[in-house]
Amino acid sequence: MARPSIDARLPHIDSQRAQVLAHPLARGLDTAEVARHLAGLPAQRFPSTVYGSRGPLPLIQPRGGVPTFDEQLMLTRALSDAGADFIPLTIDSCTRHNQYDTAMQLLRRSEEEGRSLLNGYPLVCHGHELTRQLYEGLDKPVSLRHGTPDARLLVELAIASGIVEIEGGGLCYCLPYSEGFPLDRALLHWQYVDRVCALYSTPGRPVHRESFGPLSATLVPPVIAITVQIAEALLAAEQGVMSFAVSFGQTGSFVQDVATARVLRALAREALDEHGFADVQLRLVYHQWMGQFPMQRERAAALIAGSAVVAGAIDADKIVVKTVDEAFGVPRPEVNAQAVDAVRYVLRTFALPGGTASPQIDAEAALIESEVRSLLQAIYGLSGDMFWESVYRAFQMGWIDLPFSPHADNANKLVTMRDAQQSIRIADPGALPLPPQAIAAERRAIDARPDNGEKTYRRMLADISMMV
């Protein structure tokens, strides 16, 4: 059996880093100089400092990335002035797929034509020296948001830029985004990323890692979301990461969100402690609705407000916010700033003292916990020398099966739909090794929903687009 272990730490990192940093776009990056730069940053630039001093309300982070330096600087200042606790840097899709030449061409055209031809900031093309200037005088953490299966060069340059929150992972940044990228290769590339983050960390100033919990954001059941998060946390801890955030996306059910948060927080902590990683700081991040947004701005505003209430109810450490223009494309800076202000208003006005509990939430949490424990124990029991190999084998066997994943090798045998209370249920577990009583409970919940004579595929389509 290949249990997570500190002994799995990636060997020969120096030779691998030399190859990565030999890329022309690394522009002679000096790791010793980067370490000195990080040591000189304000303590508030490090997420562990900000999380450690947060009050009773979740911290707030918007999304945001535009191609040119001047536009990104304006966006950064606007979001900081609006009161965002974390400043985002969202990377363009060409860079995410390591298409640096294309990104460079589109960046130059964007600069020349005065219009955005990339859907984010091409950090690798701009380089770390220029990107540092985005954050001069800033006393808030900067979060790298991307979606890259092979983020080795990107993360090296991001950390060199003073960005010390790195989102992603071998599972969560491969299965939802890439059709043909080999999952085993993605897992190995993210071992490199996690090890680099650990090498740049110092006591009290760790480079923080955060996993992307929404995954495909389409009818993902809690058992899959939570299992992936725990696996990502363990894989990062193996490489020496000392500060990590698990996350999940709004499901559409208040009961299921509260239950999911409870189980994710408890079982992730338990897994880290059980495998020798008790010193890892653990945080919980909540993503506002990641599915299709309503085009009516009034409804979009109501959806954002409602999810802010949920974030407060689950005592999330951070909430990643959306905007009323979500259905129309990349939001303008002022709209992003308005979203930050609106979410802060809701959190402050509708704070829930003492959390939330009910028999229905307790029953949902018990069901989810039984499913997650069953799947984790099955993965732990797989033969192999390394934990990442067990995770990969679980994927090959269809035990990690992501609904609506574009990945060519995803089993796509797990079928989910909603019950009468809008909770995401498992209609067909595929190959997932779940307890029979849990499968029966999932099906009873689905059967209790009036079918109105609808065909199954129409019910699923309605479930997917429920917010519009």
Q: What does the secondary structure layout of this molecule look like, with pairings?
A:
Elements: H1 13-21, H2 31-39, H3 47-52, E1 59-61, H4 69-81, E2 87-90, H5 93-96, H6 100-113, H7 123-126, H8 128-132, E3 142-145, H9 152-160, E4 165-167, H10 183-200, E5 208-210, H11 222-238, E6 243-249, H12 254-274, E7 281-287, H13 297-313, E8 318-320, H14 333-349, H15 359-380, H16 387-396, E9 415-418, E10 424-428, H17 436-447, H18 456-464
Parallel strand pairs: 1-8, 2-3, 3-4, 4-5, 5-6, 6-7, 7-8
Antiparallel strand pairs: 9-10
Helix pairs in contact: 4-14, 9-10, 11-12, 11-15, 12-15, 13-14
Poorly predicted spans: none
| Helix content bin | 40-55%
At the fourth level of CATH, the homologous superfamily is: Methylmalonyl-CoA mutase
Report the sheet with the most strands, covering strand number, pairing sense and barrel closure: 8 strands, parallel
**Count of domains:** 1
Task: Please report which band the strand proportion falls in: under 5%, 5-15%, 15-25%, 25-35%, 35-45% or over 45%.
Answer: 5-15%
Which CATH class?
A: Alpha Beta
Give the helix/strand class: alpha/beta
By DSSP (H or I, 4+ residues per run), the number of helices equals 18
- Could you tell me the CATH topology label: TIM Barrel
Following the backbone from N to C, one meets helices and strands in this order, namely HHHEHEHHHHEHEHEHEHEHEHHHEEHH
Shape verdict: globular
* Rg calculated over all Cα atoms: 21 Å
Question: Would you mind describing this structure in some detail?
Answer:
The longest helix is centred in the last third of the chain and has 22 residues, at 359-380. With 468 residues, the protein is of the alpha/beta class. β9 (415-418) and β10 form a beta hairpin. The radius of gyration is 21 Å and the shape is globular. The protein has a single domain, classed as Methylmalonyl-CoA mutase (TIM Barrel, Alpha-Beta Barrel). Helix content is 46%, strand content 9%. The strands form two sheets. It has an eight-stranded parallel β-sheet. A two-stranded antiparallel sheet has the order 9-10. The mean pLDDT is 96. The chain contains 18 helices and ten strands.
